[in-house]
């Protein structure tokens, strides 16, 4: 494991922790952007250039902006005076810790069975485009349909209702 | 140490942090942020297995991650639209106060 991996992993985990723990909602949105950037760097470190740049474009470019817009539209930017956590946070914390313990146990006990190809895969964007237009063309069309339906649905859900149509 | 183990542990940690956020926060937008973190952790698993598994030229894990990113973007748009719509009706994004289904 290289120093770069530890730096990027620390950045991602610190961003995620800050996003979950901070009180001000806008600060949480900025912290989660840091976590997304760390994950994009990790994709680039894994030689998945296309996925890394797609992560930067979609998550940092679109999802983070969408979250900030939603916070400002719902006036959630004021820091709440009382607690930001639910009434019984211990249940959620125990669930998350238990799931992490199970995952960690499974990963560490299967370490010698995991694949470890060292050769760097030589995959160009052209290969990805050919695969998307060849073997994966049906999923691509379904995702296009899903995105269209989801965007129209989001606009209809968030649209102003007509006056008197309560 | 096998490098794949490190990536899988980081992904498991991010998943647990996102799950804790989604289960304990009161603000609906921050619950959505937690869900996005969990989806991202799953993507990291897919990319790490693609990189260190056999036959990376088949692009299976990479394609899974790309489609998963697209579906997550659609989910974020619909989820935030729902939060804005609920806020217009009840003037709150606090999940503890959303305790009735009548509009």
Report what the structure shows:
The complex is a heterodimer of chains A (166) and B (103). Chain A has 166 residues and is mainly alpha-helical. Chain A folds into two domains: 3-88, NADH-ubiquinone/plastoquinone oxidoreductase chain 6, subunit NuoJ (Four Helix Bundle (Hemerythrin (Met), subunit A)); 124-166. Helix content of chain A is 70%, strand content 0%. Chain A has six helices and no strands. In chain A, α1 (3-21) packs antiparallel against α2. Chain A is globular, with a radius of gyration of 21 Å. With 103 residues, chain B is mostly helical. Chain B has a single domain (3-97), classed as Helix Hairpins (Orthogonal Bundle). Chain B has helices at 3-24, 28-52, 60-90. In chain B, α1 packs antiparallel against α2 (28-52) and α2 (28-52) runs antiparallel to α3 (60-90). Chains A and B meet through α1, α2, α3, α4 and α5 of A and α1, α2 and α3 of B.
Secondary structure elements and their pairing?
The complex is a heterodimer of chains A (166) and B (103).
Chain A: H1 3-21, H2 25-45, H3 49-73, H4 89-109, H5 125-133, H6 137-158
Helix pairs in contact in A: 1-2, 2-3
Chain B: H1 3-24, H2 28-52, H3 60-90
Helix pairs in contact in B: 1-2, 2-3
Q: State the CATH topology of chain B.
A: Helix Hairpins
Biggest sheet features of chain A: none
Radius of gyration of chain B: 17 Å
Which superfamily, in CATH terms, is the homologous superfamily of the largest domain in chain A? NADH-ubiquinone/plastoquinone oxidoreductase chain 6, subunit NuoJ
Percent strand of chain A equals under 5%
* Most extensive chain interface and residues per partner: A-B, 81 and 73 residues
Radius of gyration of chain A: 21 Å
